[in-house]
Amino acid sequence: MDNIKMNRTAVHLLAEWDPFHLGAEHYDTETADVVAALQSIDDPTALAKVIQETYEHSFEQWIPIEDCVAISYKLLAIKFEAKCII
């Protein structure tokens, strides 16, 4: 899996997540920010904090850190799968 495919898979996962039940099309900016952060973050807790802060900043709504950790593990699984397949 190359970076482009990894990014598309991550974008799709975040769109499906839809933490505020607004519909996938409402998170383009947040998705881009989180996928960009995913490139340099390998720690699920650190990524979860970025996710929480990004969405909270945009929507002025709080997401429980446990929810953010759960999605961060899924995103990191996509990232590590991309790195391991040659």
Q: In a nutshell, what does this entry contain?
A:
This is DUF1871 family protein. With 86 residues, the chain is an all-alpha fold. The protein has helices at residues 3-17, 28-38, 44-59, 65-84.
Helix- and strand-based class? mainly alpha
**What is the name of the CATH topology?**
Endonuclease III, domain 1
CATH superfamily: Apc36109-like domain
Q: Taking Cα atoms only, what radius of gyration do you get, to the nearest Å?
A: 12 Å
Helix content: over 70%
- End-to-end span in angstroms? 8 Å
How would you spell out the order of helices and strands? HHHH
* Envelope shape: globular
Averaged pLDDT, please? 93
The profile of the biggest β sheet is: none
Q: What is the CATH class?
A: Mainly Alpha
Write the layout of secondary structure elements.
Blueprint: H1 3-17, H2 28-38, H3 44-59, H4 65-84
Helix pairs in contact: 1-2, 1-4, 2-3, 3-4
